[in-house]
Amino acid sequence: MFFPIDYKKSMEELVDLNKKMIKGTDIMLSLEKKDVDVAPTPKELIYQEDKMKLYHYKPIKKDVNTIPTVIVYALVNRQYMMDLQEKNSVIKRWLELGLDVYIVDWGYPDKSDKYITMEDYIYGYMDNAINKVMEINNVDEINLLGVCQGGTFSAIYSALFPEKIKNLVTMVAPFDFDTKDGLLFHWSDYMDVDNLVDAHGVIPADFMNFGFLMLRPFSLTMDKYVGFLDNADNPEVVKDFLRMERWIFDSPDQAGEAFRKFIKELYQENKLIKNELQLGGRTVDLKNIDMPLLNVYAEKDHLVPPAASKPLNDVVSSKDKELVSIKGGHIGIYVGSKSQKEVAPKVADWLNERSTKKTTKKSSSSASSSGSSSKAKSTSSKSTSSKSSSSSSKSTSTNSSTSKTSSGSKSSSSKKGSEEEK
């Protein structure tokens, strides 16, 4: 069968494409680093422990929610995806809607962090950061918002310390790992994570990135670049494209021991949803989650399919719980137009309706003086091995002279391997 070719139209399209490529090249050559900067929303460092940093975003409104909101992002990517650019920053939108926002930056693990465990992340860094926010704001409870793996960590933390959480928000986070809807869940079943961690100690970011790209090889390695050419002559499109590329490949390594436990006991053995996960000698019982819960999932999520997120609402004790479906993908719900029109307003309105300030019974001075002792109690699982591996790192705070809390008990498995924070 003969298909006639319109040679004139084909040549016009070819010439047009060449013009766009030339214009796009000129645009990229003219750009400076500041032109594609990320994380534009102003913030200040208020606490640091080893490589973990806690930031506070400067409020935009005079009247802000009196219950602070702490965001915990995944280890496998950088948290500034939520503040990639000013016009589509979900962080900035939350500030405009009156939330008082803090965010945890896990940093970039190196070889000295190979013995860092999930206990260190949750009982140690995460708990210390939350304690600091409560101390600064003189409150007993905070709003906890977890994204992706950070949502899994947030659910675990809320089950262990329900008295500290006023409201829990989880976004595109996995809880039931016994699903075959996502290719990532298939692969993890056959991963020899012990050999991987024992060989590398710290899992290279390039290994993780390659795996994520292979989940959708055509669209993530070819199609997006072909699509980019159609708009290569638009300076704003070029800048947005480069910002996203920067985020995709700005991935931290993974601390081996935490990676080992997360893959084996969650992905492969699905212990979390069964209430069988042991952390620092304690059982993580999701029924302990009794605070209001907002669980947000993305309908087209290829990394965390809805089947992995939705079951959380069935196992918690919360009477006030809501499951929200967003039409979009794992990242698209944060950087697309829906982030401004649907996602950010939904989360902010939900939190604002449920957040009434509950001040501590202690005065500010007494809270400050007793801060170290309270932290020591809640971070008792920080291991000696992780301290020795990163002994050169110090805990610092810009707003307080509180010293780094000591820790005593940690599972012996932390001596076997390492996980990179990515």
Account of the protein in words:
The protein has 422 residues and is an alpha/beta fold. It has one domain (39-204, 253-420): Rossmann fold (3-Layer(aba) Sandwich), CATH 3.40.50.1820. Helix content is 43%, strand content 14%. The chain has 17 helices and 13 strands. The strands form 3 sheets. It has an 8-stranded mixed beta sheet, with helices on both faces. Strands 7-8 form a two-stranded antiparallel ribbon. It has a two-stranded antiparallel ribbon with strand order 9-10. Helix 4 (149-160) links the parallel strand 5 and strand 6. Helix 3 (118-137) packs antiparallel against helix 16 (371-378) and helix 6 (193-200) runs antiparallel to helix 10 (256-268). The longest helix has 24 residues, at 7-30. The protein starts with 6 loop residues before the first helix and ends with a strand.
